[in-house]
Amino acid sequence: MSIFLINTLTKVKEEFIPIDPLHVKMYVCGPTVYDRPHLGNARSAVVFDTLYRLLKKVYPKVTFVRNITDVDDKIITASELNKEDISSLTTRITKYYHEDIAAISCVPPTIEPRATAHIQEMIEMIESLIKQGFAYPVEGHVLFNIESFEGYGKLSRRSVEEMIAGARVEVAPFKKHPADFVLWKPAKENEYHASFESPWGRGRPGWHIECSAMSKKHLGNTFDIHGGGIDLTFPHHENEIAQSVCANNSVEFARYWVHNGFLTVDGEKMSKSLNNFKTVREALNEGIEGTVLRYFYLTTHYRKPQDFTQKAIDDAKKAVERFRNVLSKFNKEDSDSTATLEVTEDLKDDLNTPAALARLHGYADQFFKGNETMALHLYRNAEFLGLNLLKDVEAIPVEIIKLANERMQAKAEKNWQLADSLRGEIERKGYTIKDTKGTFEISKL
């Protein structure tokens, strides 16, 4: 059975036919490393990790590129607020990103390029766009002229007027068209440390050109799949298509566009002002196991909106516990490793993870009716989905998490004596606590 995916470019479910059936190539927009990944970031990571697992099962070679954006306005702002060197900040947050998504069983991509290591490729692409008449330098900026690309707006299916309204376009008198977007921008006086030399003066690349240059470097002018969150469809992915097709003189950029839906918390968009903004690390520190969190993400089809609620997490915990009851006497070392990975048939149908989980529950049902061979099927198929049911996990006790939260509150109130006392109590109970930006990490001594 072939793989079928909903292609955002055509809005229909299509059979996936790779350019080269011996080597599938996929690019996914990765994190901007200014803060720890939040629950929405993690959903995207799980979606494309699942797709990567499926592609590797079906095709002999898969190159999965997921970038690190380590030059950006948000990074500069975070660096100034933290009084921290940009290189130190991005290195630290990249490490946190790796730790946090590993906790939900996301495997590393084949290649993880950093934007700052590809500045020359970006400059060369911009020079090509200027030379061909698709871009123009003005007042230290280089802008892409959207009117020079006939296909602009094809991915998001928006009119130019809608795009201007929806993108919060910066009004600038030097633009030929209000929707022209930045390829290169000049450095401000306080941004020398976050800028680079170029033919147009010292500055830094626009966000969109970064992904175009990195995908070209590692996957070529045209590749199979480009993925990311639905919020990236416009302007980011729309602009990537325009500049890549024009710079590379190619008919197309990526053949299949795959986007995951938004994640809300209790029905509301995540926002620090609503006090519902939650990072992966905070969820883990609250005692939500990584396997439970991953199960939660798999319960909703990737293209649909998903709501993070206490009930959804409780249901995920019960499901994982049910599966572990099936495997309580299961020894993978003594098992037959050739069990059929039937969940791949569900995943081939546009990553139908809810159907895959239903299949796992079917195995559990048969096990409890006396068919003990279903334990093997449950284990192998759950493992393929990234659910670590046999992992020796020792959850942090609620009592310890409560003490850690009380300590964080004491620190916020600058009650250092109480904070030290609570640390001592945590350590006497056999755990250690490590402070991180805005949260903490707990581990057993």
TrEMBL record:
Domain tRNA synthetases class I catalytic: 18-317
Record key words, sorted: Aminoacyl-tRNA synthetase, ATP-binding, Cytoplasm, Ligase, Metal-binding, Nucleotide-binding, Protein biosynthesis, Zinc
Co-factor binding comment: Binds 1 zinc ion per subunit.
Keyword Cytoplasm on entry: yes
Subunit structure: Monomer.
This protein's GO CC annotations: cytosol
EC number, UniProt record: 6.1.1.16
Broad class of the protein's primary localization: cytoplasm
Reactions it catalyzes: tRNA(Cys) + L-cysteine + ATP = L-cysteinyl-tRNA(Cys) + AMP + diphosphate
Entry's localization field: Cytoplasm
GO biological process, one term: cysteinyl-tRNA aminoacylation
Recorded superkingdom: Bacteria
Pfam families tied to this protein: tRNA-synt_1e
Binding site for Zn(2+): C29, C211, H236, E240
Protein name (Swiss-Prot/TrEMBL): Cysteine--tRNA ligase
Protein's UniProt keywords contain Ion transport: no
Motif, 'HIGH' region: chain positions: 31-41
Cofactors required: Zn(2+)
Gene source species: Candidatus Jidaibacter acanthamoebae
